[in-house]
Specification:
Keywords: Methyltransferase, Transferase. The chain is of the alpha/beta class and about 250 residues long. It contains 9 helices and 12 strands.
């Protein structure tokens, strides 16, 4: 398998991912939810099908998806994340593209296009998120599916205080994650501080969260329509208590 680089403003967009690459798999280990996610994606891609993952990161979804026989290509703006992916994938089962999402055109079509773990939220404005949806549609094969996993913003939207979560990373090492909400722009600012005995390392990032009804309209503006929505990878109903939601989109013309 191969890695391709698409020229864009990678230095800025990849900086946050670069800062977390070495500890990402400790922060977000493979869980039963990840295994459910991979199972759903493999089913939607179809036997021997192809998949394009936006925000592939260290490959925690892409590598097990490829192990199920899906031909996987992953996009990420962080070169360090992709470096960890290559270490995690010694058999080179996943093709990678070093690029940002906006304006991307690989001149290929895929049975499945996936943006899990809030990949869409990495675009900082509504217009840019709609553009990402258009890019996803551009890469969708006839009859294909787009699958998005997004956190449900209800719990966060009214929060005014900074929230701090501490992640132990082993002897003498800890990551302190602080988040602050700016509801006017539907933005969640993130500040991560790595403390491991040396000089603390700080990295900042942000996400723009999306309401389910808003995503429906954004999809229509991008030429897509909602086919299914669940409150988790178990395909349960979306409720007020769901921490995240999964949306399956298809081309409006299909």
């Amino acid at each position: 398998m191969s890695q391709q680089t698409v020229t864009s403003d990678l230095a800025l967009s990849g900086a946050y991912g670069d800062s977390l690459a070495e500890v990402y798999d400790q922060l977000y280990p493979v869980t039963a939810g990840v295994e459910q996610c991979v199972g759903v994606l493999a089913e939607l891609a179809g036997e021997g099908g192809s998949a394009l993952e936006f925000g592939v990161g260290t490959g925690r979804i892409a590598i097990p998806l490829a192990a199920r026989g899906v031909r996987v290509t992953g996009i990420d703006s962080s070169s360090k994340m992709l470096g960890v992916l290559r270490s995690n994938d010694p058999g080179a089962t996943v093709d990678t593209v070093h690029a940002t999402f906006g304006g991307l055109d690989l001149d290929r079509r895929f049975d499945l296009v996936a943006g899990v773990f809030n990949a869409l939220c990495c675009a900082p404005t509504q217009d840019e998120q709609i553009e990402v949806l258009r890019v996803m549609r551009r890469h969708l094969a006839p009859g294909g599916r787009i699958v998005l996993e997004t956190f449900e913003p209800g719990r966060h939207h009214t929060r005014r205080m900074t929230e701090t979560v501490t992640h132990p990373l082993g002897p003498g090492a800890v990551l302190m994650e602080q988040t602050q909400i700016v509801p006017e722009g539907q933005l969640m600012f993130l500040l991560n501080t790595m403390i491991d005995g040396g000089t603390p390392r700080v990295a900042a990032g942000f996400m723009r969260y999306v309401w389910p009804a808003e995503l429906d309209l954004m999809a229509r503006l991008a030429g897509l329509r909602v086919r299914e929505r669940w409150g988790g990878w178990d395909r349960g109903q979306l409720t007020a208590d769901s921490p995240m939601y999964v949306t399956v989109l298809v081309d409006e013309a299909s």
